[in-house]
Each structure stands twice: as C-alpha cells, then as structure tokens.
Amino acid sequence: MKLLHVVGARPNFPKLAPVHRAATRLGLVQTVVHTGQHYDDAMSANFFRDLGIPAPDVNLEVGSGSHASQTARIMERFEPVLIAERPDWLVVYGDVNSTMATAIVAAKLGVRIAHVEAGLRSGDRSMPEEINRLVTDRLANLLLTPSTDASATLRAEGEPDDEIEFVGNVMIDTLFTALPNAEATGYARRMGADGTHVAVTLHRPSNVDEPVRLASIISALEQISQTRPVIFPAHPRTRARIADMGLSTGHIQLVDPIAYHEMLDLVRGAHVVVTDSGGLQEETTALGVPCLTVRENTERPITITEGTNRLMPDPAQLVAGVESAVRPTVRRSPEGWDGHAGERVALALSRR
Ligand code: UD1
Hints:
CATH superfamily of the largest domain: Glycogen Phosphorylase B
CATH architecture of the largest domain: 3-Layer(aba) Sandwich
Distance between the termini: 9 Å
Bound molecules: uridine-diphosphate-N-acetylglucosamine
Oligomer: single chain
Order of helices and strands: EHEHEHEHEHEHEHHEHHEHEHEHEHEHH
Largest sheet: 7 strands, parallel
Number of domains: 2
C-alpha cells in the first residue's frame, strides 16, 4: 500500500510525524509532498529537523498569496504529482489551505482521501479554516477523528459510519515524544521564564488583521508584562502588523517564531498561555497548563469541557484572566490523547 502525505503549513508537521513513523513500521510505502505554503526555516525546515521527519520528496514551493491564488497554485502544481504517484491514499492533515486544495485534486482524480483531524467545527464560516474543514470532510473517504465529539459531528452531518474512525489526537503523540528534548533546550530559562511567565502566540486574521482588536490585545499584554515575563514568539504576519501600526510593546518579549522544542519548553512551564492557535489549545490541555484562547469560538470544545482552555473573546478581560488562572490539581486528558494515535491512523489505513 502506498500513502502520499501532504503537508504545507507549520501546524501540519507535528501531525505528520507520528503517522509517518507508524506507517514505516507497518511497511507502507510513503511519499511526502510539502506544498511550500510555509517556507521560512523558522516556520518549516526547523520543524522537520526537530520532529525527525524525513525531508519532503517533493516541494511545490507555492509560497504566500491570497486564499484563492494560493489554493489555485497548490491545485495546479499538485495535480501532475498525484497523477505520477498514483497512491492508494492521499493523507491530509488539519485545516490549512494545503489540506483542502489537495483534497479537491484527489477527489477529481478518484484517489481516496484520508483526513487526519476530521470533524472539528467552530461553526464560524468567517474563519478560512472552517471552510477548509467542511470541504475536506465532505470529500474524504476516511475521516480520522481526534475526539469522540468530532465523530458525532460527522455522523450528524450525514457521513456514513464506516467512513468515520476515532483514532485520537496525533499531535499529542508528538508532544509526549518531544518533552525530554524540549526541556533540554533550556529555552525558557534563557528567556527569563520563571513559572510566572505568560507564553503568547497570535496569528488569526480576526485578531491580527483588525487594527482596533490587535491594539487592545497588545495593550492588555503590555499591562501584564509589567508584573510577569510575557514571551511572544510572533508569526511573521503578526510581527509585521505590530510594526506597521507602531504599537508599543513595553516589556513584552517579542521574538521571531521559534522551533517546536523551544516552544514546548516555554509552554510546559508557563503560568498561562494566551493564544489563538488550535494546536496550543490541545497541547495545554494535555500538559495541564491554563490556556486563554483569544477567540469567540473554538473548533476544539473538548479542550474546554475536559481540559484547561477558556475562551477570551474580549481582550479587555485578559489581565484578570491571567491573574486568576490556576493549574488544575488533577490533570484530565480526553480519550485517545494517549501517545498512540499515529499507530491507530496507520492501522486504519493498512486495514482498508
Ligand atoms: C496558516 C493557516 C492557519 C494556521 C497557520 C499556522 C490557512 C488558511 N491558514 O495561516 O490555519 O493556523 O498557518 O501558522 O491555511 N509568511 C512568512 N513566512 C512563511 C509563511 C508565511 O513570512 O513561511 C507570511 C507571509 O507574509 C504570508 C503570511 O505569513 O502572506 C500568511 O501566511 P499563510 O500561509 O497565507 O497563512 P498563515 O497566516 O500562516
């Protein structure tokens, strides 16, 4: 059996790693295609290195662009690759443009599609990722879900039972594997993080492309930075917006994007994480670290009902939210977030 994995953007890479490893152990033939949606070393190559994923066999080098042009470029460049490779399964991850674009190409060429992280819904179609999730799940032939609520969502949408398989959360496999290496980086200590610190990431257009909203988030973080270390590895777009607007960042330690292990070191010891990332909502739940998600909704409600996540739609509440955050005394973990999800994905594929 031959698998063709597609990845393109930073959050895809920790999801590919455990699936690729498990499929190798089962003797499946694998090709990795990187679309090049993310291309800076800090957003891509450093993750391949940290996660021990073999270098991509093909890089489509699509780069940045509007949603339509990026999606179109991925489709155009991916089609000949898929025709040449003719895999038994296209395996796509998460909800980025690369996920949806390559799923459309495969559907039209009659190549079966497996979607890892199927069934997540924010219910908010102003989010580009929500469109990507809906389209990808409608086209996929095997819906591999990270949580039982995601399986229930797909059933409610009318997906056939035999196409849905609950496998658990592959990102948590990577998290568990990486913890010793994260600690060994000493990154948090070097940054002056002392356990009272706040780790921040923000990149959603709804936060960083809205000037009034971005200003109020940065103002809240600036206030927090008067009393605690606030360490903010910023996505290139976020950094550009902050600079364009000339926002005062006070004591906030604004740094370039950091590699996977360094980020994990910063997060695991944090007092609280402030984010709009999907992955961090899950990682903080698995680590038992309080998380404040600067959004009105989440496609990962299980991180609220069974984890440490709280939605913070109003940035003005961030200061109080950070001060009142406490680590849970008993750490709960959603079912299937156990470090073996990658093996279940590979098994599900090899059985079909
Ligand atoms: C993408 C994903 C998002 C994911 C995020 C993680 C979509 C719709 N969005 O958003 O779901 O959470 O990645 O980071 O697929 N840029 C660089 N260097 C890079 C890549 C991007 O500087 O290596 C800058 C460019 O100015 C680019 C901008 O970031 O225009 C946006 O990049 P893009 O890939 O379009 O979307 P992200 O915001 O990164």
